[in-house]
C-alpha cells in the first residue's frame, strides 16, 4: 500500500502549507499569544474612548457648574487693621537718600467661629450627565477680642483704627446669591467704599467698615451668607476655636479635607455632621502682618495651579486646611470600565485557553482566524459595557454585556466544533471568568488577592489538563489519542484524522 500526499492548489491551501506545513502542538499556543498581543490594539482604542468620554463628562459638568460659581469655599472672617511704617531708602553706599511711609496691615482671626447650614442639593443635567447643585444659607457667628499689637513692636500712634476693615473671604463671588448681611455687636455692617490694597489674605473677599471703638474693645459678628454651588462645600477653619454643623437631604455624602466630623448621622433621608476644630491644629496664626504671611502661598488651601486644592479636577485631592463635604453621585462607571480593561489581557487568555483545550480533546482543528473572531467578541465586551453604563446602572450594564458576549461566543463555538457541548462549555468558562472580574471590581480592597488566586487556579488547571500532551509531536495530536496509547502500553503517536480514500493507492 502506498500513501500519496494530497495536493491543494487553492490559495488557502498554499497559504496554510507555506505558513504551517507541519504544525507541532506548541505552534498553536504561540499563534494564540501573538493574537492576544494584537488584540491589545483595539483595547487601547477602547481605553482612549473611555478617556474621551471622561473629558466630555468633565466639560458637560463644567458647563453646569460655571453659572453657579463652581464648588463654594467659605474662607472665613479676618479683621485687618492698617498701620504706617517708616521706610528709609538708601543708595549703593548705604546712605539714606529718602524717607517715606509704607502701609501694612495687622490681620487677626476670630476667637470663635461658628457656622450652621442646611444644604438640600438637587440634580441638574446636561445631556446624559448630571451634577448635584444646591442653594443654602449659612448662619455665621464669630467673636473678636480687643485688638492687640504689642508683639509687632509698632507705635500705637501709627495704627489707623478708623480704616480697619472686616474681611469675609470666599473663593468665587459668583457663589454668593445675595450680599452677605453681617452685624457687628447687633448693628449692621456697611460695605467698605474702597478696597484696601494688600489687606486681604484671600483672593476674593467682601469688605466691611469697622468703627474704632469696637476694634479696640472687641466685638461679635452674626449674620447670614446665602450661597449657591455644586458638588461640594468647603469651609476653612481660620479661628482659634471653630465649630461647623451641616445638615442635608443628600443621602451619599463624603467627608474629606483635614478634619472628619466629630459626630455624624447617615440614613436614606440625609445626613447631619458637626466639627469642632481647635486653632492649634491649623496652620493659621492668631494674628500676623500681611507682609509676613500669605494665605495663598504659605498654606495648602490653594493648589500649585493657582486654584483651590478643594476644587481640583482630581476627585482624590482635597486641601488639608479645609473641611470638605462632598455630595457624591453613584459610582463613576468610567473608572470601573478602566479597571476592567486593566485586567483584559487575562480575561482574553482564559477563553483562548479553553478553546485550545477543546481543540486538543477533539478532532476538530480551529483556524487562527476563528480564534481572532472570538477574541474580537471578547474585546467588544468592554465597548458594550462602556456604552450601556452611560444610560443604565453599571451592574445592569455588566450583566447585559456579559450575556451578549457569552451567547455569541457560545453559539459560534458550537458551530465551529459542530457539537453543542463545546459551545456550552465555553459559555460556562466565559461566564465564570466575567463573574470573577465582577468580583474583582466590587472588592477593591481584595482585588489583588482575588486576581492572584484566579491566575494561580487557571495555571494549575492548564498544567493538569495538558499533562499528557506531546508538545514535540510533529503533528497536532489530541489528548484522547495519547491517553489511549498509554493505556495500550504503545508509544505515543500523533493522529490528525483518518486518511481519505484518495490518499491510498
UniProtKB/TrEMBL annotation:
Region spans: Disordered: 483-505
Keywords from the named record: Membrane, Transmembrane, Transmembrane helix
Any one GO cellular component localisation term in the record: plasma membrane
Keyword Transmembrane: yes
Pfam families xrefs: CreD
Membrane-spanning intervals of the chain: 25-46, 341-364, 371-389, 395-415, 422-440, 446-465
Organism domain of life: Bacteria
Cited PANTHER family: INNER MEMBRANE PROTEIN CRED
NCBIfam families found in the cross-reference section: PRK11715.1-1
Name the record gives this protein: Inner membrane protein CreD
